[in-house]
Amino acid sequence: MSFDEMWGQARSNAVARQQSSMQLNQLSASGGGRGGGSDYTVTSPDLKAVGNEAQELFHSFETAAFHAGAQTDTAANELSEDGFKTGSALWTAWDTWRSQAEALLSACAHIHNHLEDTVVTHTKREELLATNLSVEQINKHFK
Question: Helix (H, G, I), strand (E, B), or coil: what is residue 79?
Fold first, then answer.
């Protein structure tokens, strides 16, 4: 199974889970299920911590993943020039590793950026709500 096929399958599974989760949340909110609401909460510090871990993984893996690239290329070329088929196999292995490492780095960056944006958006909405509530309290005194 190719990466694109696996990614498509993972995305469709995630959408199905999200849809069933939304249905369950609607049941809970309407009183049709156990309890009156969600028992799962995530706070901004939780999101920041996960985002920071993704960023740390990105930076440490970025350094470690590619340090042997030049030497691998040199070794693959020399083996190929000497007539060894392992030269092209080594190059193929390196190319596959590089491709997979870049995919992981991209995923880490995406996770970090998305969670950081989520925290910032949530904070802005909280500030807006607090401001609106304050204005409502002030307006009560002028009516």
Answer: helix
Q: Is the pLDDT of residue 77 over 80?
A: yes
CB 94 within 8 A of CB 73: yes
- Nearest residue to 109 (alpha-carbon basis) of 71, 52, 63, 68: 52
Q: SS3 for 55?
A: helix
Query: Model's pTM, two decimal places?
Result: 0.55
The whole-angstrom separation of Cα 110 and Cα 55 is: 9
pLDDT at 133 over 90: no
Residue 141 pLDDT more than 70? no
What's 43's DSSP letter?
A: -
Q: Is 57 strand, coil or helix?
A: helix
- Chain mean position to CA 24: 24
Helix (H) or strand (E) holding 69: helix 69-81
CA atoms 26, 29, 35, 37: torsion sign: positive
Report the candidate in 10, 110, 93 with the shortest Cα–Cα distance to residue 57: 110
